[in-house]
Amino acid sequence: MELSVLERNSLTELTNIGLNRAATQLSSLLNDTISIGVPKVEIVPVEEVLAALAMPGEEDVACVWQRLNGQVDGTAMLVFHLDGTRKLVNALIGSVPILAGVDLRAYEHEAMTEIGNIIISSGISVFSDLIRGEIELSVPTYGEHRLGDLIAAQAGSHEPRDLSVIIILAQLRASQQNVSGCLVLLLSVRSVASLMQGLKAEMQRSLDASVA
Amino acid sequence: MPRLPERVRDRVPIGIAVLDGYYRVHSWNAWLAEKTAISEESALGKTLQDLFPHFNSPRLIWAIGQVITRRSPQVLSQALNQFVIPIRTAIRGRHGTSLMQQQAYVNPLAGDDGRVYAVLSILDVTESVSRSSALLEVAQKLQSDSNRDALTGLYNRRFLWEWLVQQLKLCNRYDHSLACLMLDIDHFKRVNDGHGHEGGDQVIKDFAQVVAAQLRDSDVLVRYGGEEFVVLIPHCGAECGIASAQRILAAVRGSKLGPLAPGEVTCSIGVACWSSDHPSTGEELLKRADKYLYEAKQGGRNAVVPKTVRAFKS
Asked: Which candidate in A118, A132, A142 is best for mutational testing of the B interface (most B CBs within 10 A)?
């Protein structure tokens, strides 16, 4: 789906608000200044996700995902390179060595699940406001998988033509470390249409308000 | 108010509380009553702040708000929160804490009255955190031990290679220089022959201390093997490297080392320098320092080679 310049700017501004809410929460939780840069937003067909993310599909990535239900249905996935995840967690809670096969990285996974949960909830809250309706989220899950497999698993039995993907690319900065991540919303075409309708209505309201 | 079947609610080995948008308790299970010593009758209608006067968890407050206004489930990890409500536990933590370590979830629950409530579930993870902390300490100690020489406590060759690879990347990126000094105790065999291995070991330990005292905290001193040592000095060019080597040489000569009086132990030092004008690999850098050390030995020992920056450049 092609976004007009105005639509893209409005969507960028809205997601920026959501991500800033997440950054405020994370800063308070972690006693550190966490900032999330202005995101880059795109809507692409499911077949073009890997190319749009510039991430090799066969490489393992770290991902926190939550299922969405209600007026918007699909999956919200927060994706980081594995190196980025380690860099982020190490910066925030210190490094975790691996001892004789005993994987202490469960500690990292827990932390990432919560960080992802905060970012996804804050991002999705902006979309609930946009459609003036409820979007129910499932409990977050953390996994390290190949990005291609992850997208295929989340797409499930849906035909690619029934799905559309909103990609929100942003950079998170914590403890002088920059970590790039992206929020991938794998949604039904109907959900994206509903969001776009909400976006247009919001743009019209802003326009009316400025004229008045 | 939503009702959980009490037989289920009071038999599960986790804490379950139901809270409204004002953080007031509407349900408080047997596990929570037992662990907090607050009965359900005492808890009902009270806020978490009323029940725990020192309660201060902006994260939990935000999470409850998200659940009630957005129906967005929240997970609160032990890794980032340690605990959500303060509960004393019989197991004393390794870091002096006696508060239960918790993993918590907050989920939305639709009430019969049409309102949304927050179900707070708390898992006690104190024991697994204690086990992980113990494993972490062992892992960190093992990692540290594997990088140290047992006799002197200095870094060993294994650490040297790991450190040098990273340091040369930084030198390359930020255009910094790095001096590499290779040191060898002169006529060490004679020390061993005259004073036994115990005397020899003492000389090596004292030598390490004398050299370390001449270095900055950011410098790296490595026992390379036997009586051979390597000093790596970041942000230090040829002139600084030669001056440091001369200082070490004088300090060793003027110190009592083990059973030997000042002046009885000397050393020879080869100096090489990495700079962006003459980049090299770590192996090449050490090889150059070793070559100069050999020249110092051939030249009569108790010396630094090259002696001057000009000689260094030539």
From this structure: A118
Chain B window 41-60: which residues touch A at a Cβ cutoff of 8 Å? Answer: 58-59
- C-alpha B14/C-alpha A32 separation (Å) is 31
Q: Where in chain B is the domain with CATH 3.30.450.20?
A: 6-132
Candidates B62, B71, B80; nearest CB to A111: B80
A50 Cβ contact list (under 8 Å, min separation 6): A56, A57, A147, A148, A151
**Sign of the torsion angle spanned by Cα atoms B11, B116, A117, B88:** negative
Do residues B175 and B242 touch, judged by C-beta distance below 8 A? no
Q: Which amino acid is at B10?
A: D
Q: Which residues in A lie closer than 8 A to residue B116 (C-beta atoms)?
A: none
Output the pLDDT for position A34.
86
Instruction: Verify whether the Cβ–Cβ distance A113 to B73 is below 8 Å.
Output: no
Residue among A29, A106, A125 whose CB faces B80 most closely: A29
Contact of A139 with chain B, judged by CB distance below 8 Å, is answered with yes
Q: Which residues contact A147 (CB under 8 A, 6 or more apart)?
A: A50, A53, A55, A56, A57, A59, A61, A63, A79
Residue-wise pLDDT for B164-197, tens only, equals 998 998 898 888 999 999 999 999 999 999 999 9
Query: Angle at CA A107, nearest 5°, toward A104 and A110?
Result: 145
Question: Does the pLDDT value for residue A101 go beyond 50?
Answer: no
Handedness of CA B20, B22, B28, B34 (dihedral sign): positive
Which CATH number fits the domain B6-132, given the four candidates 3.40.640.10, 3.30.450.20, 3.30.1330.60, 3.40.190.10? 3.30.450.20
**What pairing do the DSSP bridges indicate for beta strands B267-274 and B304-305?**
parallel
Q: Does residue B2 register a pLDDT over 70?
A: no
Assigned architecture for domain A5-211: 3-Layer(aba) Sandwich (3.40)
Q: Partners of A81 in the beta sheet?
A: A61
Q: Which of A117, A131, A175 to mutate against chain B (most B CBs within 10 Å)?
A: A117
- The ipTM is 0.80
Classify domain B147-313 by CATH number.
3.30.70.270
- Chain B residues in contact with A97 by the CB 8 A cut-off are 136, 139-140, 143
Residues of chain B with CATH 3.30.70.270: 147-313
Between A98, A114, A124, which is nearest B75 by CB? A114
Residues of B taking part in catalysis: 227
